[in-house]
User: Fold this.
Amino acid sequence: MSLKDNITMVKEELNSEEKFFEKAVITEKFIKKYKKVMIASVAVVAFVIAANLLYDANEKSKVAAANAALSKLQADANNATALNELKALSPNLYDVWVFSQAVAKKDLEALKGLKNSKALIVGDLAKYEAAQNSASLEEYASKQDAIFRDLALVESAVMLFGENKIDEAKEKLSKVSKDSSLNKMVLALMHYGIK
Assistant:
């Protein structure tokens, strides 16, 4: 190699080392400037992760305790301690238990108490089960999101047939959805039930 090539190579090495040290100094200044922010960010992330883990562990223990209380109730339906424990741990599961017991015992007061339940479907089912006459069935069926809307209309029509209110019964049956699985029954009632 010639002297000129050696000098060029040494200059390039010095330039690369100079750039490396320059980047190191810039990085050091950045770290000093934002040291507290970076430490706080790491602390916040660690806190969020720890809080999330604790929350999950707490929820799992609540579910296990609620299931244990439900098991006690299945063994002894009159266990008031287990019932109160279930109500405190899982209000939705409590509502489902009370609903199942109210339906089994045909307890209208308990069903009426569950009409505003937050548990999925329980409120709607309680309204349907508590409906005892044509007017209350019609009121239930008038709600757009009623699960047993068509069945309530058919039951209401059958009650009206029993009271010999043929025109009202026909009107109720005409409200049943054409796509309903009860449509064949509706057609039979329209044909045989109305004179």
Remarks:
- The first helix runs from residue 3 to 33.
- The chain has a mean pLDDT of 85.
